[in-house]
Structures are given as structure tokens and as C-alpha cells.
Amino acid sequence: MTTFDEVYSKVCEMLCDAKDMEMDDLDPDMPLYQLKLDSLDYVELMVLAKKEFGVTVEAELFTNNVNITLRELCQYLSEKSL
Prior knowledge:
Shape: globular
């Protein structure tokens, strides 16, 4: 199992690269929709989850949980990781 801190760090790094942001711009309790992610960003998150943590994330995770926070996503990935 990958720790929450490891997952959070990797996910934030990817989001900062994708959205040209700084780590200080992110807050764990920030809903993902506030980041104005597009469909490609969500696909990149799903690829990152599979590649880095061995977790298959279905698009429904995002579409069924439109208010999902960065913390909730990272906790989910941490719990499901190998």
C-alpha cells in the first residue's frame, strides 16, 4: 500500500505540471472541479494512478463524485494501491 503522503505528492506534482501551478496553490480539501481540469487532465490522473500505484480508476469515480476533493482522491488511491 502506498502512503497518503506519497500519493498526494505525486498527484499534486502531476496537477502542477498540467495546470502550470505551484504546490502552494493546492489544498487537500480543494474540490477537483476548482482546478478547472479538462478531460485530458482526468485521463492523465487515471494513467498516473495505474502506472504509479497499480490502481485502475474508472471515469465514473469523477463523474459520480463531482465534488471529490484532492484529499478524497488521494485517500482512495492510497487505499487501493498495491
